[in-house]
Amino acid sequence: GRQIIRYAADRLKRCPVQELSILGLSDANGNPVDNLELSKRRAEHVRDAFLAAGLRVERFTLRAAGAIGAQTPSGAQVPVRRRVDVTVVMAPPARR
């Protein structure tokens, strides 16, 4: 994961990035409070990895969803929720 973040940071350094929105997720297994804390720590670790890779942006927005959305209405678990989603918000183009 760190290699991917370093690669992404190197590429993003050349772009007009305004914000990096980082959402930590977890699956529905375990205690909901623990899952929320785990997803928060995941988001923080990814932010820290981007900073360690030298990416400086105007704003980092961190969110933690815990297990919210990890189950369908019928109770089935959504797979691959142990992750962080990163959304890059680019600065608007300069007006001429």
* Content of β-strand: 25-35%
**Which descriptor suits the 3D outline?**
elongated
Into which percent range does the helicity of residues fall? Answer: 25-40%
- Please list the strands of the largest sheet in the order they lie side by side: 2-1-3
Low-confidence stretches: none
Distance between the termini: 40 Å
Largest sheet entry: 3 strands, mixed
The overall pLDDT average reads 90
Number of helices: 2
C-alpha Rg (nearest Å):
15 Å
Class inferred from helices and paired strands:
alpha+beta
Number of strands: 3
Q: Give me the strand/helix succession.
A: HEHEE
Explain the overall architecture.
Helices cover 33% and strands 25% of the residues. With 96 residues, the protein is an alpha+beta fold. Strands 2-1-3 form a three-stranded mixed sheet. The longest helix has 21 residues, at 32-52. The mean pLDDT is 90.
Any chance you could write out the topology, listing elements then pairs?
Blueprint: H1 2-12, E1 17-25, H2 32-52, E2 59-66, E3 84-90
